[in-house]
Design a protein that fits this description.
Distance between the termini: 37 Å
Shape: elongated
Number of strands: 18
Bound molecules: pyridoxal-5'-phosphate
Low-confidence stretches: 464-470
CATH superfamily of the largest domain: Type I PLP-dependent aspartate aminotransferase-like (Major domain)
CATH topology of the largest domain: Aspartate Aminotransferase, domain 2
Mean pLDDT: 93
Number of helices: 19
CATH architecture of the largest domain: 3-Layer(aba) Sandwich
Length: 470
Amino acid sequence: MSDLYRCLPAVDRVLDHLGKEPALSLVPRPLLKDLVNTFLELRRKDIAAGRITDARELAEERLYVDMQAFVRAGVAPRFRRVLNATGVVVHTNLGRSLLAREAVQAVNEACAHYSNLEFDLRTGKRGSRYSHVEELLRRITGAEAALVVNNNAAAVLLTLETLASGQEVIISRGQLVEIGGSFRIPDVMAKSGAVLREVGATNRTHLYDYEQAVNENTGALMRVHTSNFRVIGFTKDVSLVELRNLADHHHLPVIEDLGSGALVRLSGLDGEPLVQEVVRDGADVVTFSGDKVLGGPQAGIIVGRTEYVERIKRNPMNRAMRIDKMTLAALEATLRLCLDPEQARQAVPTLRMISTPFETLKSRAGRLARLLRTELGESAVVGTRKDESRVGGGAFPEKGLPTVLVEVTPCSCSVDALRDALLHVDPPLVGRVERGALCLDPRTLEGEEFALVAKAIKAALIGPDSEFSF
Ligand SMILES: *Cc1c(COP(=O)(O)O)cnc(C)c1O
């Protein structure tokens, strides 16, 4: 065993060797040294554990190949592009919405140059960052005023803190939603300083439940969109219009957390309220996400009556949740596209993916399957099958979007091994494993990505070494 240890090269010798590699020449020397030391330490552990027993496994040329791969992986950016073949459009773990080309350009422009972020070009004096999107949001939603913050969780917290801190907020038991990632309405309410006053039952809440709960310490009535679950069967909800009447009677604001906040009608997803409808039906303050089915950047959007939105804007907490200039640029560009719903359905990736027709998906699945058969040859069996895609992001949980999947069944390894190997190729590919096959949904892959998908699977099937050949 001690002979095996002696086969390992000295660190300086390795550094000299790797330093000559053009691909590694820009790696800072201390980082390179750390990675080499870690690599050699792992080999020593392999020897100690009896995983390496033959000196040939430690031959220099072989060691250098592995070490290069290790170093490259060690210096590669951690936050990187991934191929989403899951068919989940607003995939929370894979970055939710992709930006439209126009929005990407706006981000580039905003961060490469100075801008009028808080500078009024008409007066030459200090301006407001919110003004860039406020008019657009008013026009699209019909609301009197608008404000944008970092995300919708912030929008809800800020709204409650401003309008109802120290007071009771009445909400139906059926709407005490948990969104995931620890966003729960009762917890957010508690953090805002508002007191949760839940009424009704899980499945049924009546107008009289709200009516009986109103008292001199009531600060607001709230509705929360049950984005990610449905209660079916013997159910009853109080409509916004009914709640509006009650609120008017007691001079209370109605807050509606819409969650997804669609601005554009999408076929197959009707029955979901658009933001403009909720505004029209009388919500005083509506909050929604920028990167769910709006299809823009991560942001929380607050629209509603001027008296309330102005108070929210002036809340010192707003400063801590402030939207940054890149987000603002992307949001403005996305909203401009939404001025024309038809244009938005074409240009905004989330909307385009959700509304891709079945026939288009079928022919794209056929094209991807043919490409994979050519590229993978004998190493896998490729087929197609009808299935459903999901909107994701906790939106429309019960609505499947008809699609055609490409199924890849590897011939010489398990499908789980293929799925795992695909996480280590470049770019990594995330699909679904179902019915013993790796399933790829063309809905969330751009046409230009098919070649990358084929390369990724080929690399994963042929082995980790091949990954560096492309
Ligand atoms: C998603 C969601 C949120 C949180 O929005 P983020 O943009 O993720 O902060 C809040 N409320 C509802 C109803 C949601 O669906």
